[in-house]
Amino acid sequence: MTDEQRTPAPRLPDAYAGVLDDVDPGLGLERPTSAAQPIHRHRQTFDRELQEVKDSVLRMGSLVEESIRQAIDALVRHDADLASAVIVGDAGINEVQRKVSSMITASIATQAPVARDLRFLLTLDHVSYELERMGDHASSVAKQVRKLASEPPLKGYVDLPKMGELAAQIVHGILRALVDIDQEMAREVAASRALVHEAARAKDRGEPIGELSSLAKWTASDAAMKVATDAVQLFGGTGYSRETGIERLMRDAKGAQIYEGTNQIHRLIVADAVLGRATNQS
């Protein structure tokens, strides 16, 4: 088979569109098209699916919190109707859990997330599983209430209502932490990214970047350490285990605060630049 008869190999999308802009046309290299856009759309699709999973987990947690409170209230008042409502509501919690699990499975199969994204999805799957078990326990309490509803209480309930309220508050606190820490993480990362980009633009303009690069390195590494520490705190003892990968991120973040000059040194560099400008202006 001659070269002319061979079927040309299909061209793969070039993620480095624009890199060949200054290459001599005589070399025979074709200018890549805007084929990198599907990559961005792919990320947008994954981010949308991830947000849907998180929203479903938060909704599920809210249902579980309400179920716990209703089960304890039914116990205190020997309310069979309210207990029945808790049992029926458990089916809704189970349905949300199945939806979350299906969404996570579909996202992994179609979007092929890796590293942090994959670990986060698997963690949300585990959270939904644990929330579903809490709903089952609330339903079990409600089933016992229906058996006791026709009997007068032997004494006033004191410890059980407190225990139930504490359990509901713990569920609420965990979900609140998931939302708040996520927003705080996003703010820290966005601020760090802006500083890094500004230092890169200054370098492209040929400007001195000593102060900017030190500020970016110190801010970004401190943000990484804070985010990693908050993540370990959020996951509790599991955060220390290797199966989640969070403990490694924490070690990497600490390394970023140390190598290429400790952050204390970079703070001195920034302070020296600021004091130098103040002296020149005075």
What can you see in these coordinates?
This protein is mostly helical. It folds into two domains: 36-157, Phosphate transport system protein phou homolog 2, domain 2 (Methane Monooxygenase Hydroxylase, Chain G, domain 1, Up-down Bundle); 176-282, Up-down Bundle (Butyryl-CoA Dehydrogenase, subunit A, domain 3), CATH 1.20.140. The chain contains seven helices and no strands. It has helices spanning 37-77, 80-111, 115-148, 159-204, 210-235, 246-258, 263-281. Mean pLDDT is 79; it is low at 6-39.
What class would the helix/strand composition place it in? Answer: mainly alpha
Strand content: under 5%
Assign the CATH superfamily of the largest domain: Phosphate transport system protein phou homolog 2, domain 2
Q: Got a strand count?
A: 0
Quickly name the level 1 CATH class of the largest domain.
Mainly Alpha
Backbone CA Rg: 28 Å
Please work out how many helical segments DSSP would assign.
7
Q: Would you list the SSEs in sequence order as H and E?
A: HHHHHHH
Give the name of the CATH architecture of the largest domain: Up-down Bundle
Structural domain count = 2
- Low-confidence segments, given as residue ranges, are 6-39
In CATH, the topology of the largest domain is named: Methane Monooxygenase Hydroxylase, Chain G, domain 1
Mean model confidence by pLDDT: 79
Q: Major β-sheet, in short?
A: none
Q: What's the oligomerization state?
A: single chain
Shape: elongated
**CA-CA gap between termini:** 81 Å
